[in-house]
Amino acid sequence: MGYRTVGYEDVEPADERPCELRRLGAAAGLGNMAINRFRAEPGEQLPLAYHYHEEQEEAFYVLSGTLAVETPEASFEVETDELFAVDPESPQRAYNPDDADGDVVVLAIGAPAVDGDAVAYDAED
Length: 125
Fold this sequence. Notes:
Blueprint lengths: L19 E4 H4 L6 E7 L10 E3 L3 E8 L2 E4 L4 E4 L4 E4 L6 E3 L8 E8 L6 E3 L5
Antiparallel strand pairs: 1-2, 2-9, 3-10, 4-7, 4-9, 5-6, 5-8
């Protein structure tokens, strides 16, 4: 048996990200899912680029603020205490709009936890 607790304040933010990213799942030693906490100021996006995942399902749960998500088909506003789910091979870009009233804080969960399955998506194609 194994149990652990992880406080987000105890996890160093990842370098070279467009917003604050703390990899909670990795800090907890989870291998089958990725759990990340994002905090984005107005004008910041969560991912490095508009993208999709080949295998990974993603879920974004908004802890505070409003998350904007752009997809090829529509744009979404995800409010506090709402969940936005993304199937594999579904392009998306999650961000906090320039005109937002404040930060957005999001818990992102991805499964399976795979490296290298993110594919950049060109919205102009």
